[in-house]
Amino acid sequence: QQQVKQSPQSLIVQKGGISIINCAYENTAFDYFPWYQQFPGKGPALLIAIRPDVSEKKEGRFTISFNKSAKQFSLHIMDSQPGDSATYFCAASGLTGGGNKLTFGTGTQLKVEL
Amino acid sequence: DAGITQSPRHKVTETGTPVTLRCHQTENHRYMYWYRQDPGHGLRLIHYSYGVKDTDKGEVSDGYSVSRSKTEDFLLTLESATSSQTSVYFCAISESVSGGYTFGSGTRLTVV
Predict the structure, then answer these.
(1) For residue A45, which residues of chain B lie inside 8 Å, CB to CB?
(2) How buried is B5 (Cβ within 10 angstroms: 0-12 exposed, 13-18 middle, 19+ buried)?
(3) pLDDT at B92 over 80
(4) Which of A30, A104, A108 is most worth mutating to test chain B (most B CB atoms within 10 A of its CB)?
(5) pLDDT at position A96, please?
(6) Please, which residues bridge with residue A38 across strands?
(7) Phi/psi zone of residue B50: left (φ > 0), alpha (ψ -120 to 50 degrees), beta?
(8) Contact B1 A46 (CB under 8 A)
């Protein structure tokens, strides 16, 4: 059972364009929604995160939009650059006694072309 | 990755042999996790730890065991490796119960 569904699987964007990656979750107990960026041969790195008390969070060119009623959240990369080419994972977790166990989406391979 | 080291980085092993992967942290973080990454599946939780000697199963724990005898070390053991366990394994640490993870650089394991 996949609790976090991510789309698209791959994405090609022209330099300067907007990259949009979408995720949907099922568990209403989730209350923390991070995005991770992974370059080949490296571990995922935290990019940006949001909690459900806000509908949007922006950090530089990266923005998370969150829709609690639809149980969806998305990552927008403005002015996409070739250096943004990487795999992006959305994730979600809820507080439990055993720590915030993140459930990840299946990933989106982003390629930004010149 | 600063503060978290995985070893080995690469390993090839034969079916049926035991394998132990090590995760070492210098951040004194309470929470540690083992994930495997496979194409089309993203990252899936194998086991996690919320303190010394406190561990629990994740969604894909069959065939794996873990141990945490010290805060800084979290070991993942494949008791009898199978080809389906060929994967990239990532360790992650978390300081708090509600924060982000820091991942290690991964171990690429091939079972032949």
Answers:
(1) 103
(2) middle
(3) yes
(4) A104
(5) 57
(6) A87
(7) alpha
(8) no
Cα-based distances in Å from A28 to A64, B18, B27: 18, 39, 32
Chain B residues within 8 A of A27 when measuring between CB atoms: none
Interface test with B, best of A4, A35, A100, A108 (most B CBs within 10 A): A100
Q: How far apart are CA B92 and CA A82, in angstroms?
A: 27
Question: What Å distances lie between residue A114 and A77, A79, B62, CA to CA?
Answer: 16, 12, 45
Q: What are A98's two structure tokens?
A: 């055993």
Average pLDDT of every residue of chain B: 94
pLDDT in tens, B38-77: 988 999 999 999 999 999 999 999 999 999 999 999 999 9
Closest CA to A114 of A86, A77, A88, A80: A80
Is A95 in contact with B98 (Cβ distance < 8 A)? Answer: yes
CB atoms within 10 A of CB A99: 24
